[in-house]
Amino acid sequence: MLPEADYTCAFCGETIVVPIDPSAGEDQSYVEDCPVCCSPNVLRVRALGPTDWRIDAEPEAI
């Protein structure tokens, strides 16, 4: 089972829980559409410890 972390959508403010793929590295960045409002968020994922992750979200520049 993959670890999970949450972020707050930069557009609608909803808290979203997503799985984290540790094999992608300790620092990750990718775009994911919010499942609530469908707006694109740039997610920056960072490992804080072996099982602890932090996600910061910002709007994708269009």
Q: Portion of residues in helices?
A: under 10%
Number of strands: 5
What is the radius of gyration computed over CA atoms, rounded to a whole number of angstroms?
Answer: 11 Å
Class based on secondary structure composition and strand pairing: mainly beta
Kindly, what is the distance between the CA atoms of the first and last residues, rounded to a whole number of angstroms?
34 Å
Q: In which order are the strands of the major sheet placed? A: 3-4-5
What summary fits the major beta sheet? 3 strands, antiparallel
Please report which band the strand proportion falls in: under 5%, 5-15%, 15-25%, 25-35%, 35-45% or over 45%: over 45%
